[in-house]
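The instructor's notes for this session suggest beginning with a concrete chain rather than abstract definitions. Hand out the sequence below and ask the class to guess, before any prediction is shown, which regions might be ordered.
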Amino acid sequence: MAKRIQFRAHGGPEVLEYVDYPPAEPGPQQVRVSNKAIGLNFIDTYYRSGLYAPPALPSGVGSEGAGIVEAVGSEVTRFKVGDRVAYGSGPLGAYSDVHVLPEANLVHLPSAIDFETAAGVMLKGLTVQYLLRQTYELKGGETILFHAAAGGVGLLACQWAKSLGVKLIGTVSSQAKAKLAKAHGAWETIDYSHENVAQRVLELTDGKKVPVVYDGVGKDTWPASLDSVAPRGLVVSFGNASGAVDGVNLGILAAKGSLYVTRPTLATYANNAENLQRMADELFGMITSGKLKVDISQRYPLADAAQAQTELSARRTTGSTVLLP
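After discussion, reveal the predicted structure:
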């Protein structure tokens, strides 16, 4: 028997259970991974709360981890027992000692990158890769706005943007988080607890606003995002940390300057094994070259996943958090 975190009903962190369960045998195109570290992400709370619907209840939790291959299906060709691997996208159930997932969801993990770093960076790092390199390809010399710059995704974005020669303006909720974002490469920060975001963006850009806004916060920052982007600019809404953006009137895009909006997901960009490995290789290259430093700021035993999610939702964490089986 192995251990895992699961939930039988939607709700707060208290619905998470630490239980025994029998690990499944991998199907023909599946791989079973012995997890060495597991990533904690906001999307995990969306499934638990019911904002996103899991396939069935009871459900496992989590979609990110790193470890060693302990069994492979009969048709698996890219991996063998003993390989070091990492993953950043489903199926749900990463909060476990072992996890069975499709071969196409795994990437080879270089020996230069440890398991905690991989588990703390896969989902966030691949998200930053597609946001900055694909959704809107930053070319340098630009000034952009990135919400929640001191979070796990934000701190990676600060570093990656700086390496591309981009001035990143990051929103934060405290002076401590402003200091952290700047230490990771943010050009300027805006403390939305007492500053008007759109007004400060106007001031920082000499009235030009920004060509792209990256918004992983959602409901609370949506109005400021629309008011901060230049005419014909792009708002990239990629998360719902404060709740989902809903009731959007398309006419507002015309009124604000013929704006574009996209709601991307990692699954659409990493839509096959080749694209996933290519994105991961670029991410790993950024880490091994020293351009990207992954801060594992919190570590919790797997059994304490509920506490970890509580801290994350209360925005009392910085950088990345990992769970250890």
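Then share the key points. The two ends are 14 Å apart (CA to CA). DSSP finds ten helices and 16 strands in the chain.
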